[in-house]
Fold Exocyst complex component.
Amino acid sequence: MERGKMAEAESLETAAEHERILREIESTDTACIGPTLRSVYDGEEHGRFMEKLETRIRNHDREIEKMCNFHYQGFVDSITELLKVRGEAQKLKNQVTDTNRKLQHEGKELVIAMEELKQCRLQQRNISATVDKLMLCLPVLEMYSKLRDQMKTKRHYPALKTLEHLEHTYLPQVSHYRFCKVMVDNIPKLREEIKDVSMSDLKDFLESIRKHSDKIGETAMKQVPGAQDLVDFSPVYRCLHIYSVLGARETFENYYRKQRRKQARLVLQPPSNMHETLDGYRKYFNQIVGFFVVEDHILHTTQGLVNRAYIDELWEMALSKTIAALRTHSSYCSDPNLVLDLKNLIVLFADTLQVYGFPVNQLFDMLLEIRDQYSETLLKKWGGIFRNILDSDNYSPIPVTTEEMYKKVVGQFPFQDIELEKQPFPKKFPFSEFVPKVYNQIKEFIYACLKFSEDLHLSSTEVDDMIRKSTNLLLTRTLSNALQNVIKRKNIGLTELVQIIINTTHLEKSCKYLEEFITNITNVLPETVHTTKLYGTTTFKDARHAAEEEIYTNLNQKIDQFLQLADYDWMTGDLGSKASDYLVDLIAFLRSTFAVFTHLPGKVAQTACMSACKHLATSLMQLLLEAEVRQLTLGALQQFNLDVRECEQFARSGPVPGFQEDTLQLAFIDLRQLLDLFIQWDWSTYLADYGQPNCKYLRVNPVTALTLLEKMKDTSRKNNMFAQFRKNERDKQKLIDTVAKQLRGLISSHHS
């Protein structure tokens, strides 16, 4: 039913179209009828159109016939014309049919070509669209390929820049493609990969500069510019830029500073054996310098990775730890040469860091502390030098046999003696070898002190003061102790002591030349305010006084040794005729000893002689009164008196020049008066004059007299003096008892 309706509608539509064409044919000029006829043949109903055309022709024929009938002649004419038209129409129809056939034949290929052209045009449009899309995608793919290549070759900062361009410029243009979504999803992972890899490079860089800080510092310490050129800082710059682009600059800065602080603590931790060699200190300093050269370069080539406050904080920590380490390790050093080398190394260390803008005043302050330690090590070293000089000296005047030898000694020690110069060769200097040796070692010590003061930025006055203070310590402590040790040696002889006194006298005189020597090398006049004076004169005076005391002690010991040889027969009844052998030997020893004292200062020789005589007198008195001698005879007392007379004779002979009259004899006055009292038995005078200022036995103490008198009891029968009393022993004992009683009375009254 529906098909019928559709066919009917199509028939009506076709009929209407044919009607329209027929009207166009009827109304259109013959020359323009072609397109109209073409529209008929373009359709599929040209058969039906021909039927309609035939019908229309018949209709027109009837009308013509009617018209002819009305107008016959006109009709005949019209028929004639119509027949002609019909023939022409048939002819035209045939032509149209033929043309149509030909057109259909020829058009078939054209249609095929047109179909092919249509397909080509479609393909062309598709290809063009594809090319356009590919032109959008290719840069994305090229950028992504470039990114992967940059990642592969570890060019991370360019890779990050490529990633930024890819993300913000290229991918948005092709965001609707699936592969773009994959790329977009992969971008955070790539960023993290770049971040991780660049951080790995930074860690490698940090490890590298930790290992190479020593080399960097060594180069910088040689004052060679461009020490930082030994380091490739590009990993730091790349990582900094990458983290900055990724918005994590603060994280990077914190990480870098934290790691460098850790490295700083490691660098500042000195090895335990650093003090053993200079190389230990040098490596320690090189690492510190290398560390701060790197940080200084980072400060000036990056914007804010490190700042001045951070650098100052690190430097303060480094300064405190370095100074503490130097104080500790330098205290173990006992070699002054190593301390001096260390000082020079510290100065170089400080000067190098000062070039890079780091404050180093504390290092120079610490060098002043090390200066004191250096002085101590010098003092220890020179203590050994002085000991060797004093131990190896022969303590004999220096002999010279030629003018050359004489000038050599005078060139080593400032000595002038016109009388000695006039003497012919061979001759002797008054001092021994240790005088020029000690003098020259003092000068060497001064030079050593001067070496330490170099490059410390000290004024001449400060250098002069340092040298003088150190030299004073050398003189008053080191040299003084060495001299005192020699003087106090057990086996030292009087000859050595005498020579020491002579030597110290000349060294004392040379102190003014040492003052001049220091003035010449420091250019600071002694008259300058606050200039420290040398205490050498005091040192040598003290040594001389100690030697003098040792001479006195030594002499007394020798005297005691001789006195130990004394062998008195306290119970003898014989009267001797000569002094005891031991005493004769003792006096001979004293004479020969004092003959050696000719080069000593007069007072020293006199004091030594007086001291010896006093000690001898005191010892003889003690020998006479000692408790072990319970009894003695007048004969023993007579022998003892001969010995005392020998001593008095020695005193009168003037063994040492300079004593007035009988001054030296006064040393034996106590013995002399005691012996005279007993030998002359002059008790009446003693008892009568006792207490008087001008009494004959003023020096005899009643206690001493009583002690000796007690020893003579029960021995009177052996004394020739009491031979006349043998018949009356009781009278003799009564006399002694009476004297003893009176002596006790004197003692009691004196005590009360």
